[in-house]
Design goal:
The protein has a six-stranded mixed β-sheet. It contains 29 helices and 16 strands. The chain has about 725 residues and is an alpha/beta fold. β14 and β15 form a beta hairpin.
Amino acid sequence: MDNNQNQRNNNPLGGDNNSPRRQNIILLLVAALVTMICMTYFLKAFSDDTNREITYSEFLQMVDDGKVDSIVIESDRIDIYPVDSKKENQSPSYYYFTGNNTVTYYTGKAEEDTDLTKRMLEAGVDVSSEVPDNSGLILAFIIQYVAPILLLWLILSFVFRKMSKGGGPLSVGKSNAKVYVQKETGVTFKDVAGEDEAKESLVEVVDFLHNPAKYSKIGAKLPKGALLVGPPGTGKTLLAKAVAGEAHVPFYSLAGSDFIELYVGVGASRVRDLFSEASKNAPCIIFIDEIDAIGRSRDNKYGGGNEEREQTLNQLLSEMDGFDSSKGVLILGATNRPEILDKALLRPGRFDRRIIVDKPDLKGREEILKVHSKDVKMDETVDLKELALATGGCVGSDLANMINEAAIIAVKEGREFVSQKDLMEAFEQVIAGKEKKDSILSKEERKLVSYHEVGHALVSAVLSNTEPVQKITIVPRTKGSLGYVLHLPEDENQLRTKDELLERIIVSLGGRAAEELVFNTVTTGAAQDIDDATAVARNMITLYGMSDRFGLMQLESIQNRYLDGNRVLQCSDETATLIDEEVKKLLAECYEKAKKIVGEHLDTMDKIAQFLIEKETITGAEFMKIYREAENLPEPTEEEKEAAKAKRLYATRAESAKVGENVPVKKKNEEAPKEEDPKEETPADGPLFKETESIFTTPVQNEETKDNDENQDDQPNVGGGTFSHVPNDFDK
């Protein structure tokens, strides 16, 4: 059986007992029955009011009294038109559809009254005998019965399809899962990059479906389920589509919300129907996206208590326990809220594997960029690794968007190839917004913004544990910044030292320090800098154990790690007050260091600020050239650069410094030791640590603030000054 035939047979909405054709026939019969009953009663009531039956004697009496104007003799009856009526040469249905409400009469025909015509003529009554107009009757039948039946059928079909989302009136409790085959998804594992570990786990599952004997020979069993967990945009659904494209078996795909409908009990019924269809067509794969919609914990702490959802979850738990994995039925689930899922759903035997689909690292981002740029024409200047370095913390959807934006920029400028400049401009557009070309700053504001941004860059250049400056600009952007400093790391580091975090705070406060020392005042331009510095300082104290006062105590926990990263204090109110004092103290110390650095290099700052005001945007190389000339510093050699990198993390104990020196570092593409379980995320691996990968943070990357959604539009970078809170009259 080919895949297309298999799909038709597997469609849970197309079975013999619930085919669309059968449903339409039933709907048509119902519509016809309702229409016939309604029209019969309606026409009968109308006929009683406009066309009354009288006896033959009453008819003759009306003739004698001169009340009859004309009669029409038909085969079995006589139609009588009173004197005050206007006889029309039409069928009876004419009066109904034209609104002629004149009362007429009819009576039976008396065969023995042969002198009726003569008697009528003597009484002055017009007599006629007409052949019924059959065409009019046919038209009347179509209008009276056929049209209402079709209209009612269409209305019923629309209503039932809406209630069951296209499943037909008899499939409200049926599963509406879509069945995919390879040529329909168009996605394979070759289209997935940057998630090698997750892809490897799913490749094993697909291989098990293709070659079950290889695994059963040693006693291995197919995992009943695999749960894909990770932040939004990392490619969980894309991985599932790749499984569909590689498996060559029926692939049932639906969202968790598809189980819940208007009627109570529909969710449980659809779960039963879905697993029944899957069992009939094994081996197959069931993919439930956003499974937290039905798998939410039954504990009231996580919003439990919904009876319909609990019934659906109970049925899902029962079905996952009830089927035999040896039949080849695999369940894939995807969620970015694993902490709210019911514990019974997560236990081994239901979801045997938890596959982490995390934000890609440097190598992963470069691979993702290659996948999304394979169909985009690019020139020889393009360096995807540089863009990968700049986009620390971005996910696959962000990178795909940047590639597309770069292509649009190239087309807009009339070029046929995308350049590196286009890629970096697209990166800045996604992060900070487009340049506001019509925004004109006053001379004083331009000067203040220039000193503010140079303050960040200068402090960064003086300190030893900061990332190099890539760009300084005072061109306003649509996301609120009047200028910013872009820092690009030379390499990606998974860990941050205490010194690096402290210097990051100092760099963030460098702009405010420059304002105070140069202009003897401060502005609202440092609002975002203060927010970022406060977030880093609070993390150091509450999460990383870098406070002498609190030591190694964890004072906060992170909830919804893969979404907004809500922070919850794990201490008393008194301790929370002490934390605020400690954060305030740390920020004050860093600010004093920033002012000290700026105060010692005011002449250098003047030269760089003058150049920046003239150019509006300068590169990191131009900045460092002016800085070294002003400070009389030589250009560092490659050996000195490598030595500086080596001093980032080094053992102070001589014996410890020798450990591991002769062991080569294993590259990413080399064979790594096999691990039984996927990599578990630790605080050092989590989003709060990874957000320090790039000084230029993104809305996706920045999870340090208490409410990321409210701040994401205002955070183009941590080191650069974001003037998003500057009021129109701040300089007055």
